[in-house]
Amino acid sequence: MQRAPKGQPLQKAPPPAKGRWSIPTFSGRRLRDTFKTGRTAATAAGTALLVLSTFVSTVALAPAAHAADPVVVTLTFDDAHADQLGAAAYMNAKGLKGTFYVPSGFLNADAAYMSTAQALALQSAGNEIGGHSVTHADLAFADTAEVTRQICNDRISLRDLGFRITSFAYPYASSTPAIEGIANTCGYNSARGLGDIASHIAGTETFPLAETMPPADPFLTKAPDQIDNTWTLQNLEDLTLKAQPGGGWMQYTFHHIGVDTEPLNVTTANFNALIDFLAAEQSAGRIVVKTVDQVIGGAVKNNTAGPQPPAPLTSGNLIRNPGFETAGPIAGDAPYCWVPGGFGTNTYTYSTVTAAHTGTAAQQVVVSSYQSGNAKILPPQDTGQCTPTVTPGQRYSMSAWYTSTANTQFEIYYRTGTGSWHYWTSSPYFGPAATFTQATWTSPPVPAGATAMTLSLTMFSAGTLVTDDYSLTKAAVDPGAFQSMAPVRLLDTRSSGGPVGPKGTVSFQVGGNSGIPANVAAVTFNLTVTNPTSNGFVTAYASGTTRPNASNLNYDTGQTVPNSVTVPVGADGKVTLYSESTGTANLIADVSGYYAAGTAVAGGAFRPVAPARFLDTRTTGTPVAPKGSVSFQVGGNSGIPAGVSAVTFNLTVANSTSNGFVTAYASGTSIPTASNLNYDRGQIVPNRVTVPVGADGKVSLYNESTGTAHLIADVSGYYMSGPVTLPGMFQPIAPTRFLDTRSGSPVAANGTIPVQIGSVSGVPATASATIFNLTVANPTRNGFVTAYPSGSSLPNASNVNYAAGQIVPNSVTVPLGPDGKVSLTNSSTGTTHLIADVSGYFL
């Protein structure tokens, strides 16, 4: 589901679930003809609305002069949609096999597409898997290098996954003689077009009733138009019936089966009825159903990869050909590095006009009729030729000059890996403008796992939009702003360097590592101690500075103990870890974000301080009483301003006389239903805490226990007070319980549970990251939990390590997925309950 831009309601229906746009749709024949002659404008009717008419009398059946060979029928399926799996099962149950054209970038993209395992199962059942380009690109708009990557690399990727790849289908039936030659060079034995065989579609009446056997051109095999939701069962059967007197080859092209919301759909009832019909015709000897590979034949060939894409632009304007001045590969059509696109039901044309903001070219989109969706021209869904490369967690500032007769807005897509494109988000509206006006907007942080993005101003009503002079740059990061990132392991002494010795230190590089800028103020990471040979504690501090009188993590012999750390980074970009122990210990650091360098002044900006002890009840000799509380001064203390919004500190419990937990909260407010640190009698347990500061500048700590406990607070930074409006700034909230599986079922062994953060309890949908205390309770086996953005891959990192029966807390700072969720994965052979208490979020 699309999330509304910050401060805006949901403004339009979201794009289709498949998460990519489509070019203006033609029947395949007319598309290729116009490519060969050049075109200056195109008309689209949604994703796949075609002009229809009835099958006219010129294709009525005439008695056969002699018996022809049986018609060869091939059932082809495009785009790896998961709804094709049920169709394949029914088809295969009737003894029929088909050819499934799979863009390699779509496999495993999400639940709407097939997984590799599902596609391999289709092949094992006797079906054929064919290539369909890496990203389902409109190849006629790409240069030779990109076309070669799309076709050759797609074939290599599929082959390396275990598929027998001999057949190809041109996405959108978009081909030229040069592209057909590349398909041959890339090792395919054939390639399918569309729209050159007679059907009920207007304009095809005089076309052949079937492809010849063998095809005259195996790299442009003829087929009827793709099947959409306007085709009747009789239309489907007629393709075979009317071809039978003369024989030949009939290729059916399906996209969706039984998905009523998709234009390129055939109902399950009609599909099954067609399969029943074809099975009966085959039993009667009038047709033979084969895969494309069975029709064409030939050995499986080897091929080399396409050329490497050009080096990405990393500074300045990341848009190639931003002013449309460089012509594209199709004379008179879209400019270089731009393609038309849209979704929904609308009719539009696009063209190059000379009334430009600068130079001699601008792009015009005219929507002449509108029901839903939008139309635009944008950088293509490619493998790196044109679309800007982006960094997860980074925000980008975009602009474009436009005139428009109606509202417009930026729409953004992002790519994961090399081929899976997804809708991301849209900007607020920009109003109609009679003269060129600049639209500007800064995106949310790029989602985890994203490698590239594309954007455009769109037309989502009837009207005319002219755009020119696009720009995309890395957004300036304000000092003290948090930049979230997918957790990444920057230190693991088990695999490098060996355990830290008694009273020893180890440093790890933060600045300039894994996409982190060379100069940052502070870093947030999860610190884990494992395999210690004696008791001890670890202190984290900025490299090159004096080790502070503070601790971040306490451990016993043999324990595996985690704790979250936020600490300043040294001038050399490093953090140092000191192990106070008579034994050795291995240390692991999983970084989840950093704070921008500079003097932080904005509301919600973070200012790190060298860790300093603000509270230690052991020095007063008075532990916190059962169900008692203690407060300590933050504002106006040790150089911290009197008015701050929140504080980050390491909280340690020591010498407890009973089991219990501690809750931190703003002084003067009610004790929340949340916890920060759970402990057993006699344990020394630490946990990082980020919590609002009270109006009196204090933080209170409540001890929920029947016994006493000493509490220690080591402060490592604070957040500035004032309105929180800038990206990356922190807004604290009273600790609030967002998840508690104890009210239902525990998380399964090796299971994952989502937690909705955005759009809940006042957290905005556009929040980029969150801080919450994660508690493991009642685990049945040893294990660990990893928190990461929803929609991204499980990282090689951990947040909480636990043993069977333990109650273990740890603070988590993690990016939110595009849907506003965090995923929690329980890596264990047993179950466990999880509790999440949120204390704030980052814009």
TrEMBL record:
Annotated region described as Disordered, given as residue ranges: 1-23
Ranges where the NodB homology domain occurs: 70-189
* This protein's record includes keyword Signal: yes
Extract the GO molecular function terms from the UniProt entry. Answer: hydrolase activity, acting on carbon-nitrogen (but not peptide) bonds
Tell me the Gene Ontology biological-process terms attached to this UniProt entry.
Answer: carbohydrate metabolic process
Q: What is this protein called?
A: Polysaccharide deacetylase
Task: Report TM segments.
Answer: none
| UniProt keyword list | Signal
Please give one Pfam family short name.
Polysacc_deac_1
